């Protein structure tokens, strides 16, 4: 099991702005480079809305202020209220910082779709696509097409399997081992997808062990989490997602080669999609959980991607969210031009930064 690491002390920062006498201030608590919560007049608020809440209070102040962002030894930041014209966007700073640290990530899960001709056509569309440089692109064909895709797809795009066995190969009919995938040249594997959980019946602990074994054999893992519609309606989204995250954390020794994919089950293949705000809220909670239960370093370095009816029309707005580092795409990944457009939604991320 991974023990919680000591929080890394954030860098001190200061920003001078025009103004007069200082107004009221708000205190934010950080883990590493991440905001965790806000204390507002004794009341604890969480999520990006907490920052918006405090800054809106500042915005209503009649007095402009000279603002300084000050780091203190406890890892807290005091942000005096800033006048409207000089307000600094915390979310924008985090987005820019994250884009500097790692690339946007888009995975395409082809599931059990396609035949030889359609796969050949899709590969050609992807080979012809013009993709932004700072986006990592991975596609996951059905097992029987892995070899042909590996041999014909541009090296610009990596290849993933959709599943792997929990241990070494042997008498496990219908399964495929991590060793076999590596032998073929596969770099990634998708684990914990909702269809494996709720159709095949895989449990959290089993999925965690599969992830650990895949990583130990050199595969990188897209580790899926997400809640059912009835769980969301019952207010259990974070409870369910945290249990799934814990199953990974209990088994995985390092998160360096892990991408977390949040896929609300009610939005997969239904045409429904979480609003950008709904997706951002859960992504922020996932990042905080990783910081609190794995380490601040893992929290700041782990990409958290969104899946659930992502398409060319909605990807740009989703990409602008602070904690959405990419997408895991289903049906739209079967159309080369649409998938390329989703990959290139990283440009919206840059604008937001």
From TrEMBL:
One of its GO terms (cellular component) is cytosol. Belongs to the triosephosphate isomerase family. One of its GO terms (biological process) is glyceraldehyde-3-phosphate biosynthetic process. This is Triosephosphate isomerase. InterPro entries: Aldolase_TIM, TIM_sf, TrioseP_Isoase_bac/euk, Triosephosphate_isomerase, Triosephosphate_isomerase_AS. PANTHER family: TRIOSEPHOSPHATE ISOMERASE. It comes from the Eukaryota. Pathway: Carbohydrate biosynthesis.
């Amino acid at each position: 099991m991974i023990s919680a690491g000591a929080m890394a002390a954030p860098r001190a920062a200061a920003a001078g702005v025009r103004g007069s006498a200082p107004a009221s201030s708000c205190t934010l608590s950080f883990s590493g480079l991440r905001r965790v919560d806000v204390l507002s007049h004794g009341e604890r608020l969480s999520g990006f809305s907490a920052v918006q809440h405090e800054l809106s209070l500042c915005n209503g102040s009649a007095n402009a202020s000279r603002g300084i962002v000050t780091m203190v030894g406890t890892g807290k930041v005091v942000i005096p209220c800033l006048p409207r014209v000089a307000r600094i966007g915390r979310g924008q700073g985090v987005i820019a910082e994250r884009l500097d640290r790692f690339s946007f990530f888009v995975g395409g899960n082809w599931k059990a779709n396609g035949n030889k001709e359609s796969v050949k056509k899709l590969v050609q569309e992807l080979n012809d696509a013009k993709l932004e440089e700072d986006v990592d692109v991975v596609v996951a064909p059905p097992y029987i097409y892995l070899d042909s895709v590996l041999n014909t797809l541009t090296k610009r795009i990596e290849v993933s399997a959709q599943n792997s066995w929990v241990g070494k190969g042997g008498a496990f009919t219908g399964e495929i081992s991590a060793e076999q995938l590596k032998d073929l040249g596969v770099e990634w594997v998708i684990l914990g997808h909702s269809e494996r959980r709720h159709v095949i019946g895989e449990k959290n602990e089993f999925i965690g062990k599969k992830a650990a074994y895949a990583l130990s054999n050199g595969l990188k893992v897209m580790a899926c989490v997400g809640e059912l519609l009835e769980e969301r309606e019952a207010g259990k989204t974070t409870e369910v997602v945290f249990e799934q995250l814990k199953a990974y954390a209990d088994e995985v020794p390092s998160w360096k080669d892990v991408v977390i994919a949040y896929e609300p089950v009610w939005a997969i293949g239904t045409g429904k999609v979480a609003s950008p705000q709904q997706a951002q809220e859960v992504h922020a909670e996932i990042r905080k959980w990783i910081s609190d239960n794995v380490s601040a370093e893992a929290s700041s370095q782990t990409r958290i991607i969104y899946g659930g009816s992502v398409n060319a029309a909605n990807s740009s707005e989703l990409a602008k969210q602070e904690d959405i580092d990419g997408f895991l795409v289903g049906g739209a990944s079967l159309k080369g031009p649409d998938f390329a457009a989703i990959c290139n939604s990283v440009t919206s991320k840059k604008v937001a930064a």
